[in-house]
């Protein structure tokens, strides 16, 4: 396997593409539109990483978070200025899930949910922490 590509299902795909452009500086590569105007498939990049997006197709069991009421996955955006992108996402219409804070594992991170129900963690590495130290910090944080 050469790479894994996230695939997001969104009830209103065109609206989603525009949101990602505003919130995360996404670049639209292409979209395939059905005769009635529904975006069947599109490809964007965020920071050079490819993300596929498609509309919902209930007849095939393809439903997005808006329809099912939650999501079971998240996407992490590792960027140079997490605070800036976090505020940009909020200004574009995302909802804060966790505030931007320095984390025990060496990142400054916060998370948002986009208007379509997808979860995004936005982070910047502020200090490299080796796995052994990270485990110690994790146990100390959670009282073990």
What would your notes on this structure say?
This protein has 144 residues and is an alpha/beta fold. The chain has one domain (7-141). The chain has 4 helices and 8 strands, in the order E-H-E-E-E-H-E-H-E-E-E-H. It has helices at residues 13-24, 65-68, 82-92, 131-141, and strands spanning 7-9, 27-33, 39-46, 49-54, 74-78, 95-102, 107-113, 119-125. The strands form 2 sheets. The protein has a 4-stranded mixed beta sheet, with helices on one face. The protein has a 4-stranded mixed beta sheet with strand order 5-8-7-6, with helices on one face. The longest helix has 12 residues, at 13-24. The radius of gyration is 17 Å and the shape is elongated. The model has no long low-confidence stretch (mean pLDDT 94).
Secondary structure elements and their pairing?
Layout: E1 7-9, H1 13-24, E2 27-33, E3 39-46, E4 49-54, H2 65-68, E5 74-78, H3 82-92, E6 95-102, E7 107-113, E8 119-125, H4 131-141
Parallel strand pairs: 1-4, 5-8
Antiparallel strand pairs: 2-3, 3-4, 6-7, 7-8
Helix pairs in contact: 1-3
Domain module count: 1
Largest sheet: 4 strands, mixed
Spans of 5+ residues with little confidence (pLDDT < 50)?
none
What's the mean pLDDT score? 94
Strand order of the largest sheet: 1-4-3-2
* Alpha-carbon Rg, integer: 17 Å
The separation of the N and C termini measures 38 Å
**Total count of strands:** 8
Helix content: 25-40%
Helix/strand-derived category reads alpha/beta
Element string (H = helix, E = strand)? EHEEEHEHEEEH
Count of helical stretches = 4
Shape: elongated
Query: What is the beta-strand fraction?
Result: 35-45%
């Amino acid at each position: 396997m050469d790479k894994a590509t996230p695939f997001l299902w969104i009830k209103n795909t065109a609206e989603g593409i525009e949101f990602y452009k505003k919130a995360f500086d996404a670049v639209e590569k292409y979209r395939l539109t059905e005769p009635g105007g529904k975006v069947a498939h599109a490809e964007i990049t965020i920071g050079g990483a490819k993300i596929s997006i498609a509309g919902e197709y209930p007849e095939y069991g393809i439903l997005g978070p808006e329809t099912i009421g939650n999501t079971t996955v998240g996407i992490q955006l590792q960027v140079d200025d997490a605070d800036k992108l976090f505020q940009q996402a909020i200004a574009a219409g995302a909802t804060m899930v966790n505030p931007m804070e320095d984390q025990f594992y060496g990142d400054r991170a916060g998370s948002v949910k986009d208007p379509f129900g997808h979860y995004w963690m936005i982070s910047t590495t502020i200090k490299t922490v080796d796995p052994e130290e990270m485990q110690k910090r994790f146990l100390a944080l959670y009282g073990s």
